[in-house]
Amino acid sequence: MTSTWSRLQLLHAPPSSLLFRRRDFPKFAKFVPAKFLLPTMCFCQQLQTQTYEIVKGSYVPAGDTKQATKVEDKVVKALEAVGAFQKLPMVMPSIDILYSALKKARRVSPTKGIANIAKRERNKGAKQLDALMKEIAVPLRKYTENFPGKISLHPYERSLVELTLGDGNYEEVLRKVDYLRKRVVAVGKEHASLCAKSVTKREAEERLSEGIKKIEEIFSHEGKAVDELLNIAKTLRAMPVVDLETPTLCLVGAPNVGKSSLVRLLSTGKPEICNYPFTTRGILMGHINLSYQNFQVTDTPGLLRRHDEDRNNLEKLTLAVLSHLPTAVLFVHDLSGECGTSPSDQFTIYNEIKERFANHLWLDVVSKSDLLTDSPVVFITEDSNTDSLDLAKYRRMGPDGSLHVSVKTEVGISELKARVHELLVTQSERIKSCESSEEGHEVVT
Description:
Elements: H1 2-12, H2 15-18, E1 52-55, E2 58-61, H3 65-79, H4 94-106, H5 117-146, H6 155-165, H7 169-196, H8 201-222, H9 224-237, E3 248-253, H10 259-266, E4 284-290, E5 293-299, H11 313-324, E6 327-333, H12 343-356, E7 362-366, H13 389-397, E8 403-404, H14 413-444
Parallel strand pairs: 3-5, 3-6, 6-7, 7-8
Antiparallel strand pairs: 1-2, 4-5
C-alpha cells in the first residue's frame, strides 16, 4: 500500500519537483514552491538529415546545387565579357625594372646594433640580395597573374589574340616571364645564403658583388621576354572595344570595294582609304548617333575567293567578328571592276558568307554606282557565256533588293543612312529579346 501511494504521488507531482531532492541540498537552502516554478526546458540532439554534394571542391546542400550552378554560370559569363585588353597591367621595360631594383637594393642598410664588422657586412649583403630579388620578382609575378588566360577571354578577343599575335605566342611569352622570375628568385636566394655564411668582410663583399652580377646576367639574357610582353600589351590595348549590348553594323566584302569610304560616311570612324587591296589591316571601329541612339560600325579586312584554310589572318579576323559578335551585316559589292576582284568571284564570296551567317540581319549595297555602265563588267579570264542566270543578273544589278550608292556623287546616301538606321534598330530589339529570354530561362531553372 505504501509503495502504491508513493507511485501515485510521483505521477501527480509537477515535473520540476522531481528534479530536486531535499537530501541533495543543505538544510539552509530554500526552494520556491512547485506551483511557482517555470516549466523546465528539455534539450535533445537532432540527427543531420540534410544531404550535401561536392561542387568545385566545396560542400553544397543538395537542394542548392542548381543555385550553385547558376552562380558558376554567372562567373563564366563575367569572365567572357569583352574589355579584358583595357584592364591589362602596365608593363615596365626590362631595363627600367632592373635599374630600379638595383637602386632600391643599394639603399638597404644592415640591421642596427651589429658591432662586428664582418657580421654587419654579411647581414647587409644578404639583405641587399634579398631586396634585389624581390624588387624584380614581384612585378614579374604581377604580370603573369594579371594577364588573363586565353580560356577566360571572350571568344572574339581570343580570336584576336591568336590571329594578331600568332597561335601560342601569347602563352609562350607569359611562360618566359614566369621562368625568368623563378630563375631570379633561385639565384637571389642562393647568393643571399652564401653571403650570410661569409666569414670575413671581404668575402661578404665579394659574394654580394657576385650575386648582383649573376642576376644582371640572367636579366640581360632573358629579360627580352618582358619587352615582348610590353609590346603585346600595347598591341592588345589598341584593339577596338566592342560593346555587346550596343547594336553593331559590320561592313563585309571583297578588298577595295569601298567599305572604308562608307564607314567614314556613316560613322565617326576614320579608316585609311587607298586604291589597293587590304587597305584595312585590322578591325576598325566607328560610332553612329541617330535619334539619340548610339550604334557601332565595324570596318573589316576584305575577303577573297578561297577556302578557309588558305585565308590569311586578316580575312580570319573578319570571320571572327561575324562568328562571335552579334552584328548586322552590310555587304558591299563593286561591279565596276575597279576593286580588282571580278564580279563572279564576289558573287561566290557573297553566297558563301550569306549561307554561313544566315542568322544575321543583312543589307546589300552596290558601291561606286557612278562608274557602272550599261554593259556588265567581264574580266579577261572569265567567259560570260558560261554564266548562270543568277550570275548574269548579279553582274548587271547586284543581289535582289540591293541599294546602289556612290560616295562621290552622294547618290543613294540618304536612303542608305535610313536603311542602316532601321537595320540597327531591329538589331537592338533582337539583342534585348535575347537578353530577356536568357533572364527568363535563368528564373525558370
